[in-house]
Amino acid sequence: MKIKILVIVLITAAVMCLSLVLGPRTINPFAMDKTSREILFSIRAPRSIVALLMGVALGASGAVLQGMLRNPLADPYILGISSGASLSAALGIIGGASVFGSFTVPVFAFGGAVATGGLVGVMGWERGGLWPERLLLAGVGLSFLFSALLMLILSISTDEGLRRATLWIFGDLSMSEWSRVPYGLFFVMAGIALSVWRATALNALMLGDEFAHSLGFAPQRERLILFISVGLMTAASVSLGGMIGFIGLLVPHIMRFFIGSDGRLLIPASALAGGALLCMADLISRSVIAPTELPAGIVTAIIGAPYFLYLLRRKNVLGI
After folding, report:
1. Domain 2-7+51-312 belongs in CATH node 1.10.3470.10
2. What's this model's pTM, rounded to 2 decimal places?
3. What is the pLDDT of residue 114?
4. Nearest residue to 192 via CA among 111, 274, 256
């Protein structure tokens, strides 16, 4: 098992290095001129780190949600948090808000994500705790509502911010900068720490509340902690670069097939693999039709959808 974890770490490190040196302009790290150094340290490095953080958050969130909700199709966006964040961010972009400077869109997105997460939690709370069925229904309902409102705003808007808002919704990493890294790192690592801390409880929840209770865990308390961890990671991810699909859904299944279902290994492995996948998707998005860039979310969907359909054909891959 240690060898498998080492392989995941090495692949993630290799993809990260490739995302730094490859692109519309290939950079030789051993012979850089002034322009190459500027591209590497001011553009590609923060962009690659932001992509890594977003992928880490989405991969880990997917692993937690699929176990917590006992639903193999659960992903970070099923709770409606991303839809609320996107609606809030689009309002900020199209409305031309600039109260927080370059942080305006991330702040709007993070605030919308937190507010939506709180609303989903309230709607999913019953008899002293969070219930998976109510969380799912509340998340799906709010997601449809916020998505409809977002499409309404985009359809009637004639503002020049419309294109920027559309790109951001589908995952736009072109605006990544160093100033966004510290707060993204803080919230993503906080969510990872919470989820890994309660990984043993997550293993018990996957087998049912009664089994978890028999092992000494309080299912509702554990579910609340895990829900908070997912909310932090999803909010941070969406605020950093918009909506990126399929990573939270696909990566945990691949890692479960590779290393098993133990949350203590699955969560960090899914985090690393998610980061590697998004870094690779970002590299493709800025290279395939350079100098034009594709939203990274489109690339992950093109990569993820066929492979997920392939996974559906494999016996017991979706069993958790």
Report:
1. yes
2. 0.90
3. 87
4. 274
